[in-house]
Amino acid sequence: MNNHRPDSLPSGELQPQQVLARHGKSFYWASKFLGAELADRAAQLYLFCRYVDDLADGDLPDRQESLEDIRARLAGKDIAAGPEIEAFIELAINNNIPLAAAAELLDGMLSDQNPTAVADEAELLRYCHAVAGTVGLMMCRVLKCTEPRADSFAIDLGVAMQLTNISRDVLEDGKIARRYLPASWANFTPAQIANAESDCQQPVAKAIVRLLDLAEQYYASALLGIRLLPFRSRLSIAIALRVYRQIGWVLRRRKLAWWQGRVMVSGGEKALLSLRSLADLRPKKVPAHQTQLHQHLQGLAGVQPK
What we know:
This protein has helices at residues 16-23, 25-31, 36-57, 63-74, 83-95, 99-111, 121-142, 150-168, 170-175, 190-194, 198-225, 231-253, 267-276; strands at residues 116-117, 178-179. By secondary structure, the protein is mainly alpha-helical. The two termini are 27 Å apart.
């Protein structure tokens, strides 16, 4: 969910579907296949995530204090945190969304208030769970999924999407003093990456390949787990997965030239990927979740203990 770098917070006058259409084009495309009721609930969840993400990445002088107030409100404290947060809490109550997942999302946003330099793969994956794996958990509830096994696969989809976000936004993140690429893979400062210095271009490109390869492991797992969702939701989530995954393939197709800026998936590609997603509806037994994918995520929301 993180790393979308808006210029301002969404207008309070916009409806959830309008915010989704404006700021989350891939998700908006996928939501068209959910049906009106589920699409509206998904858009409400997106509106909350968008709001806190924009707050975390904005330039308001009191943004950290605001994030801390939201975190406290989600923990049950009687603190005024704004109508957007109250609307989300109502959504959470009505859909059995675990507020612990939302609180962990805020922890991830709060961690971004300091200059970021991820040390290793474990730290990277725990961050991805905080800002996106938690969103997968919450989306499971919004889509009325009652299969407990689905949580692990939903976390994998969130982690995979965040790894894709990071691979796409390496240059932009460097410009705001953030380096999510593990130092153990590419130990350059955010400033060096922001300047796209010649001696770091190829090493960073190789690190991005590692990001994309890691994301593939989580996408593959998530694709299996889609069959645990209610039938009406499967096509939409399969489309979201395939469209987001394509960002990585577009980046590879561009020879990992991350210094040239962000890549996008074309409308034609989205349509083709949507047709391919129909194959994901075929009945198939879902194997046990691969526990090694969560070895670095122990103790976090929704993660099953070993």
